[in-house]
């Protein structure tokens, strides 16, 4: 039997059991490959130190600094001792604190002038930043001139580490590993990049890249290594996506061409407005795809209110004209019911096919959700299998085995980021041949993310709002700094309602120990009382903003609704809506709100997608700093849907200079969702964005950042498409296949975990 391929070798064999156990448990590193790909977060230079002034609170950090002064202090009437060591880097200082016996041992080493690497969790005591009992490694211990010289020239890699395994221990582990690979001349290392691509783009060989990223001599080394390792990630991922696109394009599908004088023409004839230019362009792209004998795979991105539903409905009607059926999938029952309501309203008598008074071209539009009564469900299933219903709208209940279609031609998926590839495949198997697929999302996705996450879909973008939509004004309400602003907020809500409009108040939690949607937490005592007074918390919990002690729990729907009804909004019709309510009561509240029988709806983010009440003009978002940028943008899209201008007020306790306030200011400053999604990505790092969207992607991205590496991703996509077109099975590129299998295994594992 040959050697285990170098990268698959378990760390246990290389570093010993106990070290490997800590690395596996705390850093999720299991094999030689995992450790080689665990890249330094940054590099400290001998002469230049981390900026202590910029240290984040509550994070585990490694700093390189010099001891400025050290003092032993007593406390508790002389019974206790502590050593306080102030270290500095020129930009700021940090205090290291050691208690008890450990203090004496360290007093001898940590003397002014010594330099070292110190690791610990940053906390604040008496307004001074400190590390309590940090681990450290002194950098000038060896007095030997050679050692000092070797050290002086080196860039010190600082790794993403944890309390149990500090950065310098990782350096030692990586050194051991590199020495082993060097001794064996990197035998068994597979290089995923085809040699022609590597040479054509002047990229370093893989062993070189690993050497340079872990043991750089110069900053140029780090750049070379990064350029090469980013290409690996981007290219392997894009090959996986290109192969998926290629496989899809080989599938047969029934071409669905709309017929003249059918239901689509009848629908267009009675539209009370003209389509925007964007809607016409995107519709043309979709109808071209539907007319081919391979399945369409298209992502339709559009701002809230840009008229995506209209475009999707026209595509569905075109397919019905061509003799097929169309299914629309929504992430929640509330949304499915809303889509059903809005589609039947838009279609009018055309949705009453086969009924008296229905139009001759009509077709039945049925709703299918998990909570339907048996009789209604049986009828819906029957209408689908006989082909009586041309359009079905539902939740993923549609994917169940029991659901049979007469001839499924098109699947429209709403809000893709809640809907994985495996569900698409399940639905695809419902057609006699794979149906065409249109995926809609209202979350604007920057082009690079679309290429990375939805790289197996073609993209269409709707970026203009239909005529008649009003602009939305957004303002930040600093409840803690300026309590009278909050009082004014409730006055504004009253004014809008007196003007005949309606309002939303959104909170992060449900309350009554119900936590966030599906999450039990303790209620915020007193948080709501102050919702009416002006502050948005119980005073005591207030130092709690941004990393300063404990934050108070987020405000809750049930508390806030009760306070508003008793206080600033008394006399108005206030109702609540949240994800824990029974579907019937949710529906009932939504119906009454839509009918104008409710003035103020206090809700969780269940209203984020798809609620359409043109008469609602104002939205107050409580604890707005607890929501993501894109989420705030989505929520805000619920107001200003009619002819009256919309107003969105972001209430927050976050202090003025905090990152949270900067985020809220960005939302208030632009209505461009693509711009905001960039900001969101830059701030959250793309993990969350990709993680929501597609499993497997994040785990494979270690060096590549989706926002900054747009050029690499676009170039890799082109190269990947060319490679796959020439050799779909990658027979000539065995190393690339190996890398691809490793990536896809990881993806498959994640699907299994999720499933």
TrEMBL record:
Protein name: Probable DNA 3'-5' helicase RecG
InterPro entries, alphabetized: DEAD/DEAH_box_helicase_dom (IPR011545), Helicase_ATP-bd (IPR014001), Helicase_C-like (IPR001650), NA-bd_OB-fold (IPR012340), P-loop_NTPase (IPR027417), RecG/Mfd (IPR047112), RecG_dom3_C (IPR045562), RecG_wedge (IPR033454)
Originating gene: recG
Source organism of the structure: Streptomyces aureoversilis
Domain Helicase ATP-binding per the UniProt entry, residue ranges: 289-462
Keywords of this entry: ATP-binding, DNA damage, DNA repair, DNA-binding, Helicase, Hydrolase, Nucleotide-binding
PROSITE patterns: HELICASE_ATP_BIND_1, HELICASE_CTER
Tagged with keyword Amino-acid biosynthesis: no
Region feature (Disordered): 515-551
CDD domains assigned to the protein according to its UniProt record, in alphabetical order: DEXHc_RecG, RecG_wedge_OBF
Helicase C-terminal domain: residues covered: 557-682
GO molecular function list: DNA helicase activity; hydrolase activity
Pfam family, one: RecG_dom3_C
Low complexity: bias regions: 524-533
């Amino acid at each position: 039997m040959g050697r285990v391929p170098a990268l698959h070798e378990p760390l246990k064999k290389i570093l010993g059991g106990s070290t490997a156990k800590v690395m596996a448990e705390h850093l999720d590193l299991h094999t030689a490959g995992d450790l080689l790909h665990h890249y330094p977060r940054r590099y400290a230079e001998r002469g230049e130190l981390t900026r202590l002034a910029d240290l984040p609170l509550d994070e585990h950090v490694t700093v390189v600094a010099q001891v400025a002064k050290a003092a032993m202090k007593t406390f508790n009437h002389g019974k206790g001792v502590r050593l306080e060591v102030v270290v500095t880097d020129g930009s700021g200082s940090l205090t290291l604190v050691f208690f008890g016996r450990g203090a004496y041992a360290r007093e001898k080493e940590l003397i002014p002038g010594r330099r070292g690497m110190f690791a610990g969790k940053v906390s604040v005591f008496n307004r001074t930043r400190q590390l309590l009992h940090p681990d450290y490694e002194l950098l000038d211990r060896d007095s030997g001139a050679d050692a000092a010289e070797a050290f002086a020239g080196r860039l010190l890699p600082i790794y993403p580490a944890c309390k149990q395994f500090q950065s310098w221990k990782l350096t030692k582990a990586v050194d051991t590993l590199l020495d082993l690979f060097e001794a064996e001349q990197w035998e068994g290392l597979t290089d995923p990049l085809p040699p022609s691509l590597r040479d054509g783009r002047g990229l370093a060989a893989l062993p070189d890249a690993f050497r340079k990223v872990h043991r750089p001599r110069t900053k140029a080394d780090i750049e070379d290594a990064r350029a090469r390792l980013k290409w690996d990630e981007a290219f392997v991922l894009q090959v996986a996506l290109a192969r998926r696109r290629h496989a899809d394009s080989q599938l047969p599908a029934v071409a669905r061409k709309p017929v003249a004088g059918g239901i689509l023409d009848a629908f267009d004839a009675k539209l009370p407005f003209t389509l925007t230019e964007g809607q016409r362009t995107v519709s043309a792209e979709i109808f071209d795809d539907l007319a081919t004998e391979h399945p369409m795979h298209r992502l339709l991105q559009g701002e809230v209110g840009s008229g995506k539903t209209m475009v999707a409905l026209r595509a569905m009607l075109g397919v019905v004209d061509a003799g097929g059926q169309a299914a629309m999938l929504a992430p929640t029952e509330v949304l499915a019911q809303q889509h059903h309501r809005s589609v039947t309203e838009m279609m009018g008598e055309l949705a009453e096919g086969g009924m008296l008074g229905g139009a001759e071209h009509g077709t039945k539009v049925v709703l299918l959700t998990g909570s339907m009564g048996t009789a209604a469900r049986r009828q819906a299933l029957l209408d689908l299998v006989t082909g009586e219903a041309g359009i079905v709208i539902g939740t993923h209940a549609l994917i169940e085995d029991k659901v049979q279609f007469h001839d499924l031609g098109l699947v429209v998926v709403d809000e893709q980021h809640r809907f994985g590839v495996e569900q698409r495949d399940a639905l695809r198997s419902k057609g006699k041949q794979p149906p065409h697929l249109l995926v809609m999302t209202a979350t604007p996705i920057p082009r690079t993310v679309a290429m990375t996450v939805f790289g197996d879909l073609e993209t269409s973008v709707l970026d203009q709002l239909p005529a008649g939509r009003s602009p939305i004004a957004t303002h930040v309400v600093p409840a803690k700094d300026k309590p009278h602003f909050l009082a004014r907020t409730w006055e504004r809500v009253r004014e809008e309602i007196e003007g005949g409009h309606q309002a939303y108040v959104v909170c992060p939690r449900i309350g009554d120990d119900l936590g966030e949607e599906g999450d039990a937490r303790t209620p915020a005592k007193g948080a709501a009382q102050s919702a009416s007074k002006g502050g948005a918390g119980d005073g005591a919990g207030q130092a709690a903003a941004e990393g300063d002690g404990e934050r108070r729990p987020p405000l809750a729907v049930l508390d806030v609704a009760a306070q508003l009804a008793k206080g600033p909004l008394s006399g108005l019709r206030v109702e609540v809506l949240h994800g824990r309510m029974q579907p019937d009561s949710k529906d009932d509240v939504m119906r009454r709100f839509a009918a104008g029988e409710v003035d103020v709806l206090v809700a969780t983010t269940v209203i984020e997608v798809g609620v359409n009440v043109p008469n609602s003009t104002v939205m107050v978002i409580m604890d707005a700093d607890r929501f993501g940028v894109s989420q705030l943008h989505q929520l805000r899209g619920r107001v200003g849907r009619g002819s009256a201008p919309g107003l969105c007020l972001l209430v927050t306790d976050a202090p003025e200079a905090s990152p949270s306030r900067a985020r809220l200011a960005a939302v208030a400053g632009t209505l461009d969702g693509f711009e905001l999604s960039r900001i969101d990505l830059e701030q959250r790092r793309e993990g969350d964005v990709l993680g929501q969207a597609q499993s497997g992607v994040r785990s494979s991205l270690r060096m590549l950042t989706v926002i900054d590496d747009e050029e690499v991703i676009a170039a890799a996509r082109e190269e990947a498409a060319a490679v796959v077109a020439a050799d779909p099975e990658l027979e000539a590129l065995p190393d690339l296949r190996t890398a691809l299998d490793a990536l896809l295994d990881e993806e498959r594992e994640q699907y299994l975990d999720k499933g």
